[in-house]
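We emphasize that the prediction below concerns an isolated chain of 461 residues; any contacts that depend on oligomerization or on bound cofactors are therefore not represented. The input was used exactly as deposited, without trimming of termini.
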Amino acid sequence: MTPSIQPYEKIRVKGLPENVADSLNKLVVVKLNGGLGTSMGCKGPKSLISVRNENTFLDLTVQQIEHLNKTYNTDVPLVLMNSFNTDEDTRKILQKYTHHRVKIHTFNQSRYPRVNKESLLPVAKDMGLAGESADGWYPPGHGDIYASFYNSGLLEQLIAEGKEYIFVSNIDNLGATVDLHILNHLVSQPNGKRCEFIMEVTDKTRADVKGGTLIQYEGKLRLLEIAQVPKAHVDEFKSVSKFKIFNTNNLWISLAAIKRLQEQNAMDMEIIVNPKISESIPNPKVTNAKQTYQFQNNNRRTCTRNALMNTLSGGLNVIQLETAVGAAIKCFDHALGINVPRSRFLPVKTTSDLLLVMSNLYSLEAGSLTMSEKREFPTTPHVKLGSSFTKVQEYLTRFESIPDMLELDHLTVSGDVTFGKHVSLKGTVIIIANHGDRIDIPAGSLLENKIVSGNLRILDH
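Result of the prediction step, given as a token string:
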């Protein structure tokens, strides 16, 4: 492990000072809240999806910070970076937290126009978001946080209040809680050698082969994303033995450093866009997923832009450009990677992930999920639910109660399958209902190292 990537244990063994509250009062928690729940079949902001005991991602975040503030008598605020897609709905829901012990601020990330591939002109006809113009705009990725945070005036306000660091993470990563050991490491450094940027990385498994990794390049730590890797080297990039860690997108960043870099126009990020389909556009076709454009940025360095070519509902090819928040690591002084336990990376991107966090594998306390002590090994099972489970509402109707998964290693479910109450799954379980068939797993069933296929109907008498 390079000196620029430290094992978490090395940070943890230093212990905590008596004045933990002093460190916490220098911290701001920032959650990236620009995404919609469309990939899970939900309307509105993803942060408003219920994930555990009727608590949403946002509820759990507020509970975590409120618990910190009550425990240590501190004032750690929560800042949400919204997009034009999520701002209105999020603001409405924030009223419910008025009497919680956590100050909540919001700011909006930028709104960029999609560009017509042929004419290189903006697709949108006006600045509005209604009607035809709605498809003409997009939020340009979380790398926009630096400029938008600075331009909102909120960064200056927080610095004036004595805040020094932000802890940034995706709101759907339920493992991204405030870690007092990492915070202490930041604030205990001598002034001249203060670390301005920490990226939490964790060991890569075969499920994470596409995740960005940290590399040393020209004396600086850099984030290398799969979209930057030439096709001939993609397999090498995915190798668990060669690139052993990946970026969790849990980041600790100096507010003063963001201010300095913004004012010097020195925030230099590669612009990379991975091919993806906009759910708001009916039957999109991705045509020529990546093209490479050379451009000169403000620092006169040549960078590469990968352009996303989406076909809009009108059959129009457009270019969409984004940046990633972690790509700025090379701009900050004394940047560091910390190899953290896997428990700090618990994203909920699909209903397969949702099943894990709703199950008895985890216990919930003060907004934080922790792996059950009854689980004999700390790894999470590999769960793959089929297309019948993709949408949250449909997924919920297929489980009368969430199965006992404490001893589960692997679960694959495909086709029209439902689960009765108090089902227990152990070892490797594969359930496949072929087209036209249906499988109802009876209440109270124990499935251990079983493959279930065919047709099994249970009807009310």
